[in-house]
Amino acid sequence: MCVEALGFGMTSAPSRDPVDIARFTDMKLSDERLAAIEALGWEMPTPIQVKAIPAGLDGADVVGIAQTGTGKTGAFMIPALERIRAGEGLQVLALCPTRELAQQVSDDSVALAKGTSIRSEAIFGGVGYGPQIKALEDGFEVIVATPGRFIDHMQSGRVDLSKVGYLVLDEADRMLDMGFRPQIEDVLRGMPRKRQTMLFSATMPHGVHDLALRLTQDAVWIEATPSGTTAEGIAEFFYSVKPEKKPDLLLKLVMEPGWDQVLIFTRTKAGADVLEGRLRREGIQADVMHSNRQMKHRTRALERFATGKVRILVATDVAQRGLDVEGISHVVNYDVPLDPEDYVHRIGRTGRAGATGNAVTLVTASDLGVLKSLEHRLGRSVDKIHLPEFDYAGTPQTESRSAARRGRKSRSPHGMGSKAAAELTPEELEALLNPGS
Ligand code: AMP
């Protein structure tokens, strides 16, 4: 088994990496597809697309270790659309962990199928059955589904899997984490044996590795982003803060210049509601998105955020994957995520496809254990910023001295790393508090 590690390579700066030389026009794609890709404004394939599209076009199975933001959807959907024909029933089935991701992948499929009669539908729970039943009865060629609702349709005898020759498991690690293994197995039992399988996963724990080996044959393994690392172009900041000072610090930060579109993650749904209320009381427009909110509210919140009508979205991890909004300037971990993988996925919402972004994490004294496991996972230590009025530990001279000795590890745009605030000149402090100025 050969895993091709591609690194990131997604910055807009010219790169001498040979994988960047490939163009979509070198890839034996149909004219309609090339036109659709051009209409999307995709000028060059991303590294994972460079490897996965030709392999997929050749009929090979692909295992992609890639997180959202690497262009993985195009990597599996472009060959899928090239290999099917309109009017011949359901031929591509993509399974995704969340509703938001299913909708996003289906939207990408519609955009990439532009100029052809290939139809795609997203199927997920929490919404009416009508359009989904119609899409299945009409033999839409591409279905992108969450496993639970898809099984409902299968059990009601509405799904004909006999012509599905292309199966995608997207974010396989997340699907297993969410307990979808039995549903995935049920779908697999109904699938033709002869088929092409594309499995994409941000991480490759044993369960996913075993699934990949079982489901694919002679697969091309491609690693776009080393597991557990964060994307290039994202500057990370960790603020030391007393728990009771968190709302004040957040309010201060979101009022700073450059904080244009902000996605804030909280650990709990109640926490998200409380924070949204606080922001609104301060006259800052914000929406909230979590699984206790009705689907229509979630969709509306997402739309308002994506179109820039509201610049702050407070969410629990429901938004972590599949939330594909361009131009998120800041992702805030209002609570340090308990699972280090969640940190990687959350902050992947900013710095999408080569853009730059900022990830800000609020760290209280009780988070230090969790922070240790995050540092372990990232393979590097992170330095905290200590602002005297919010800091949980006063001015921690020890840490700031050792940080100064170690040199800067956090990528502060001002080159100040974790100098204690007391050590900064007034100009440095001002620059730190107003990064856009
Ligand atoms: P994904 O990793 O599939 O979620 O894609 C992340 C973002 O990158 C989406 O907004 C895509 O529209 C965008 N994207 C995918 N492929 C390309 C490409 N070749 N060039 C520019 N943007 C892309």
Question: Could you characterize what this model shows?
Answer:
With 437 residues, this protein is an alpha/beta fold. It has 3 domains: 4-223, Rossmann fold, CATH 3.40.50; 234-386, Rossmann fold (3-Layer(aba) Sandwich); 397-433, no CATH class. It contains 16 helices and 15 strands. Strands 1-8-2-7-6-3-5-4 form an 8-stranded parallel beta sheet, with helices on both faces. Strands 11-12-10-13-14-9-15 form a 7-stranded parallel beta sheet, sandwiched between helices. Strand 4, helix 5 (130-137) and strand 5 (142-145) form a beta-alpha-beta unit. Helix 2 (47-57) packs parallel to helix 3, helix 3 crosses helix 4 (99-112) and helix 6 packs across helix 8 (181-189). The chain starts with a strand and ends with a helix. Residues 1-21 and 395-437 have low confidence and may be disordered. It binds adenosine monophosphate. Residues 42, 44-46, 49, 68-74, 324, 326, 352-353 line the site of adenosine monophosphate (AMP).
Q: Which characteristics define this entry?
A:
binds adenosine monophosphate, eight-stranded parallel β-sheet, alpha/beta, 16 helices, disordered N terminus, 3 domains, 437 residues, Rossmann fold, 36% helix, seven-stranded parallel β-sheet, 15% strand
Give the beta-strand count: 15
Q: How many helices does DSSP assign?
A: 16
Strand fraction = 15-25%
Radius of gyration from CA coordinates: 23 Å
| Small molecules held by this entry | adenosine monophosphate
